[in-house]
Write a structure and sequence with these properties.
About 50% of the residues lie in helices and about 10% in strands. The protein is of the alpha+beta class and about 350 residues long. The chain folds into three domains: about 110 residues, Sandwich (Immunoglobulin-like), CATH 2.60.40; about 130 residues; about 40 residues, no CATH class. The strands form two sheets. The protein has a four-stranded antiparallel β-sheet with strand order 4-5-1-8. The longest helix is centred in the last third of the chain and has 38 residues. The N and C termini lie far apart (about 60 Å). About 15% of the residues have low confidence.
Length: about 350
């Protein structure tokens, strides 16, 4: 099923690209961090070593995250591609008649199960940049879902009306979308999207003109069972199934083998596109890292920060220093001294 959001006339406001990482911080606005439970949790948490201060010219954390996402995605996609290639070979051999019998089918079934297990571990092994369809965009992956009973045509038939959404605890903030009889489909979707955006959820259209919602994948556990709609209370959410579903592939007869082979070939094409996207993202990020230079005033600030930390003899200072010096070779020190 094609679940790519269709752009509206207003641009990207109601597209899947509208799910921004920054919205994650506003996912549960009704919950305050300064609560007794939060204080207890902070008190019980281990104290992390105080890091050295980062100068203004240091490489941004977002860039480093992008490099890590791309690298982890490439490693994972290579493993998936290898399994798909092996499975493609086995299916082709069976269709050609060179491999027959129960042993050949058992071999294919084993490879299908291995691929399914690899895909099931995507969120853990593939990094935060790969979504359930193995698409890589360089941004944190999103989870697409539907709200049961929230259909666009039904909402438009009941217009005019105001529909309020909330995400999180009962009594949290509700943001309303106005649905009017003179609105186009795209206008209605934009109204819903604007209402949900501050809650960390975006709305758009799927390929069939139906409502489709998305939230950063890291936020999905908090969103999944906590969406409420005015007049309906809590509503059930349903994940959009992944496009690559080996557990549904059948290898029992010739027709099913052909269909499974088509699925494998399509999956391979998708993986290759994602590999290209991740490789390009990694190359761009690596070049930016290599070209990054710390301005002279910031070098002085960094040196002062380092000297201040080095003057301390407590455990936290020593731990911060040892962490900062890991991987610093003699050649790098000489190169830095040569800049003076």
């Amino acid at each position: 099923m094609d679940t790519t959001f269709r752009p509206t006339s207003s641009g990207a406001s109601a597209t899947i690209g509208g799910v921004r990482g920054g919205d994650a911080a506003r996912l549960l606005p009704a919950r305050r961090a300064d609560t007794p439970a939060a204080d207890e949790a902070r008190a019980a948490a281990p104290v992390a070593p105080a890091p050295l201060k980062r100068s203004a010219g240091s490489i941004g954390g977002a860039l480093q995250d992008g490099v890590a996402r791309a690298q982890q995605a490439l490693d994972y996609l290579e493993r998936v591609a290898s399994q798909l290639e092996n499975l493609k070979g086995e299916l082709s051999a069976r269709l050609a008649g060179s491999r027959k019998g129960q042993g050949a089918r058992a071999q294919v079934d084993t490879q299908v199960r291995q691929l399914a297990a690899t895909l099931a571990a995507r969120s853990r092994d593939g990094g935060a940049g790969l979504d359930a369809d193995l698409n890589f965009s360089g941004q944190p992956a999103v989870q697409r879902f539907r709200m049961r009973g929230i259909e666009l045509d039904t909402l438009q038939q009941g217009a005019p009306q105001s529909i309020a959404f909330s995400v999180g605890g009962i009594g949290g903030p509700q943001l309303a979308a106005s649905i009017t009889p003179d609105q186009t489909t795209e206008q209605s979707v934009r109204a819903i999207d604007r209402a949900l955006a501050p809650l960390g959820v975006r709305a758009g259209l799927d390929g069939n003109g139906g409502l489709l919602f998305a939230t950063p994948e890291a936020n999905w556990p908090a969103v999944r069972d906590s969406v409420a709609v005015s007049g309906r209370g809590r509503v059930s959410t349903e994940e959009v199934p992944a496009s690559i579903a080996p557990q549904q592939w059948d290898t029992g007869n010739i027709d099913s083998l052909r269909q499974s082979l088509r699925e494998v070939v399509q999956a391979l094409e998708r993986v290759r596109r994602s590999q290209d996207a991740a490789s390009n993202a990694l190359s761009s990020a690596s070049l930016e890292v290599a070209q990054a230079q710390t301005p002279a005033p910031d070098v002085e600030i960094a040196a002062d920060d380092f000297a201040g930390a080095a003057a301390g003899t407590d455990y936290q200072s020593l731990l911060a220093l040892s962490s900062a010096l890991v991987g610093v070779s003699r050649e790098r020190v000489l190169a830095l001294l040569g800049l003076r």
